[in-house]
Amino acid sequence: MNSTNLIIFNFNEVRRRSIKVWNSIPDNKLNWKPDDEAMTCLEMIRHVLESEHYYHLALNNRKSLSLFDSPFENRPFTTVKSELDFAEPYRKQFMNTIKSYSEEDLSNIKIDRSDSGYIRDLGDMLLRIAYHESVHTGQLLDYLRSAGIPRIRIWD
After folding, report:
1. Rounded to whole angstroms, how far apart are CA atoms 41 and 43?
2. What letters, b where the CB count within 10 A reaches 16 and e where it falls short, cover 23-35?
């Protein structure tokens, strides 16, 4: 298995486990948050999906975007399924972009996020994008614990 295939496998595994957690949140807890400063469960799910779209555009641009016109903005929050359905075409585009990268691209393409304090090789950046989602999945597991909701087993 080459590096690009491993990165794709990682993205798919992270998303599979995220979806398990997201779907385990009871509908009456989707708007729960641990404090007034935090995102709700559904806001965090949207944040993950919207961020992936942002990162995809930034990868195509090879740097941070100076302007991001998000298709996720101003959409009403409803259900996990509606969020996933809306994000699906963006996810497919993103995964197709990753599939188009060669081994050489992963180390030769640089992504300039100087505004966030770094410039990274494409391969490094792709792993960071997947890590972003996994961190938020962990946060949601903590939300569930704090709200007294049983947590689904994601380590299968």
Report:
1. 6
2. ebbeeebbebbee
Helices 41-61 and 122-146, interaxial angle, to 10°?
180
Q: CA 106 from chain center: how many Å?
A: 19
Mean pLDDT value across residues 47-56: 98
14-45 pLDDT per residue, tens:
999 999 999 999 999 999 999 999 999 999 99
Angle between helices 3-24 and 80-99 (to 10 degrees): 180
Residues 6+ apart with CB under 8 A from 7: 98, 106, 123, 126, 127, 130
- What mean pLDDT is reported for the chain? 96
Cα–Cα distance, 45 to 136 (Å, whole number): 8
**Maximal C-alpha separation, the chain:** 47
